[in-house]
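Dear Dr. V.,

Thank you for agreeing to look over these. As mentioned in my earlier message, I'm a first-year student in the group and I'm still getting used to reading structure tokens, so any feedback on how I've presented them would be very welcome. I ran two proteins. I've put each sequence directly above its structure. The first is here:
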Amino acid sequence: MQLLLQNLNTSIILVCISIAFYVVFHYLANSSKSRKEQKLPPEAGGTWPILGHLHLFRGSKLPHIALGELADKYGPAFTIRMGVQRVLVVSDWKLAKELSTTHDVHISSRPKFRATKHLGYNDTMLVLAPYGPYWRGIRKLISSELLSNRRLEQLKHIRVSEIETSVKELYKLWIEKKNSDPFGRVPVEMKKWFRDLTFNVLLRMVTGKRYFGALAIGDEKEGRRCQRVIRDFVKFLGTFVPADALPFLGWLDIGGYEKAMKEVAKEMDSLAEEWLQEHRLKKEAMGGDEEEDFMDAILSRIEEIDLNGCSADTVVKSTCMVLIAGGADSPMVMLTWALSLIMNHPHVLKMAQEELDMVVGKERKVDESDIDHLIYLRAIVKETFRLYPGGPLGVSRIFTKDCTTMSDFHIPKDTWLFFNIWKLQRDPQVWSSPLEFKPERFINCNKEIDVLGRNFELIPFGAGRRICPGTTSAHQILHLVLTNLLHSFELSNISNGAIDMTETAGLSNLKDTPLEIFIAPRLSPYLY
């Protein structure tokens, strides 16, 4: 959630507020009078007329950090007002568990934002769609045709071959440039390497295309365009514009963000339309032969789904685009955080490589079956998810029914819900030294805790019905890429200083800056 209050034109806002003040004040007063006398969660202080708590997010402090500080003052469950909208902010794993189990069906829908309207095909995308028959139908189709354990096993060759090819290309780069450094090291921009690799994997799984590397199936220029569109999509999807909190400003596009969203959506739809028509032509030419990718599968089964009035083409395009965006971007983000943390803690890098040498050795490549035996490396991944969840505030939800929690808090219908995952996973009552990077914490007393939504102390992918459907796929890709990288290469920082771990605002909290490190091979040449 990227709040853009600092970009509002003050004079325009004052005029609009003057015009709308009476109407909104009247609305709030009537709402307050009609509300039942119930015990509500505490509301944070400092609210402003009309704007509510929006002013708290004007500065450089990130929303999840600002809300975390409010939790220290008002408790792990409190409310704020974003314009006319009440928001419940939860930073406690026990309450998160209760809401995601007892009240799960009542918090499984999404608020309607300008971003979801313009970028999500008017809330047709799976991640953004309201809970109901349409969402269940699409979720079931995605699970069976792409993200089930059975299907992921069938698609194993894609992730394995892509990782193997990418490692070989890194080795080839080292061969070409090794003489430029007295120590035989070669600088590599790892974020780009991660992005190209995860993008190739997801694009092959969903559309059968591969844009990057020696084995590319498609034009690299088109691939870069697609990556740019996906990055813009993720960026703007996490953009909260003033009209989301102040509906009476809906006729204004302050800052031009809605115009930019529409342009990104148009370009994204153009790409998806090209892929869709290619698949239709291929299907006609092949005469209904065996399906090869997810777009083939959804085209074959789209008639089984209650489309809720949407066109079949819109559903196919929106579903495929959100799978590519989420499935490629999230692993890239988490791989970047993981490698940054490892490089800032040399003893962790040493222990991880020692474990790899013990379990795998240096006479063969890493196999996916080895990951179950790499206890320390899996602990590194969990600790990365704990400290830097890909979405610090998750994806917003909305209460579709009045709810009363076990602590007797009454939550009115239409209240928005934010799980402050970043704060929840740094709870000092759960984790010792919660701000420190300590993979060891997951080897002994916390070894049974996973990230699959069963342990609410650690829910980087969310929980309940709206847990990220790609959790298992992302987990597999992340582990396999990280193990191959650490097993195949010696890694070292280019500078003596630590890698910058500063977060940024947006749906993903990763800064758009390079991550450059030195690499050198650590295995026999014949293994590359």
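The second protein is here, in the same arrangement:
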Amino acid sequence: MSREAERRRLARPLAILMSTLIAAGSALLGQAAPAHAASVALTASGSSWAYPAIDQWRQDVGPQGIQIDFSAVGSARGRKEWSIGQNDFTASDVPFRTKPDDGASDAVKRSGNAGVENPVYGYSYVPITAGGTALMYNLKIGGKQVRDLRLSPQTIMDIFTSKITNWNDPKVTAEYGRALPNLPITPVIRSDGSGATAQFTRWMSHTFPAQWDEYCKSVNGVTCGEFTEFFPPSGRMTAQNGSDTVAGYIKASSGDGTIGYDEYAFAKRSDWPVVKVLNPAGYFTLPTASNVAIALTAAKIRGVDDATPPDDPNYLQQNLDEVYTNADARSYPLSSYSYLVVPRANSLKSLPRFSNDKGGALSKFLSYVLCQGQGEADDLGYSPIPRGLVRGGLLQAQNIPGNASPVDPNTLSNCNNPTFNSAGRLTILDNAPQPSACDAKGQPLDCKIVDGKPSTGGASGSGGNSGGAAATGGGAGGAAAGGAAASGGAAATGGGSGSTGTTGNKAGTTGKTGTTQTPGSTGGSATGGGSATGGAAASGGAATGGGAATGGTGEAAPGDPAAAADPNAVPADGEGAAEETVDPQTGQVVARGRGGAATEIAANVVEVGGRPEDWTLSTLTALELLAVVIVPPLLGRRLLRRRTDNGGRS
């Protein structure tokens, strides 16, 4: 057989294999990202508060041929750009102004950016997400970041009206429960017109109207009205343009002593601490998705809670007065909704350069946002919106010129929204955890939950190397040399007492069938085989028993009074069933009666793994690469062996 014939004989099966692999991969690629006749581009701008959510959603719909260019320039500028026909839609956290913004400076007023807004193009408001206005801060004690700051609304108000100007102010110390550094407070506000400022100042004006009016008059000479998008600066305040810039300024190494208001998403995605705010029920809470959803059950929405018709321009606008006073223990007071302003057919004047193709793409985008996209809200630092607002938003989408929404707004039967249960209720409301009793006003930072009740455990040590007095059934070690005394957690009934604390560790003796523990190393934890444990490891590490919940508390490190015990450690009950389990980041109760007969609150789990077709495509690609790398050498060896067998002849 000739060399050419031999090559043909070997090449044919190889070609078939490669063709099969390539065809399969191409077919799968076509299935994962279907081809479109044409891509539709939309331009938009506005709210930087809602930007993290909008940015994720615009990426999600990219494979559908919908390309969205969004600029986070702030709500006020976004509405202005809409008004001159510059964008296809805009994002705003507040409606168009029907009267001048008195909170703006004279310079802003002269620029014409704070006057009455009279949009000439037809529009509708479409709610897209809910969220909490968080208070990010940057504080350190002994080089360690403070992550558990808690403040009352009055103290927050005093900080942002320049009445409290230093972190060691007695009011701050009393609420936080520990002295903070002698450091000036630098409030970070927005320099641009923003919905975040509007939401924050609306809360201030409704919660402390007299103080807010007095402050505005002292800065501008007039009151700021119900809210302002332009925060009046005073004292050490620094103004930054955009939510992302505010967050970056606070997180910078030079930001020590700063505090500013921002959407919780900017803190959550970088694991940055925010203030626990005291709510009307007397609990310090965070702007988590569930706390925001609980708070917004008290919101009044036009068209949902009254007879406002869907064709009214203010349909679905919010009234948050009762949100600020919501007495649910889980509510976060500074909660609100954000909106898109979208074109409306047969009303006022048509938006220039807006085609039916753009309207079809925009309505499909809204259908995704209001249905499937709401499932991403929690991960992004927001809260999903209730069914009534989803339906109202989809009704508004029907009025967009060229509407091509695939969802029936009347039944929502094909709205793939994972945040609803079968009854149409937000599941996050049913699963919303109750706050820990240790988050109640007046509880100390070293509070623990013992037998379902807040407690500081055993008596604290007297300092140095001496151990403190033993609590009932358990002990409390003294602080390490040079550190502040840390309160010890009480062991379960029958548990042994903890021994004298030493630098960085403490010995413990278990109850019942347990064995004597050896001192834990710094930062480590001692493990016992009994049903209750004694002492605890240093630096906040908790000792655990073989069949019980955690035992005592961590101790302060040498010379560092800030290295306090973990406030979320859960003492044992001696029977292997914890009274409560507390989320170490939020401080909220996420389970009760584990191992017992009581109910357990389910956690919200979001799957972030790749799609099955992604894995299959990767596998096929790998096979193709293997074929390219492995087959040619094998073919070469085969031909060489053939030549050798033929005496060197081809």
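From my reading of the second output: Residues 1-5, 21-37, 458-580, 582-621 have pLDDT under 50 and may be disordered. The radius of gyration is 31 Å. Does that match how you would interpret it?

Kind regards,
E.
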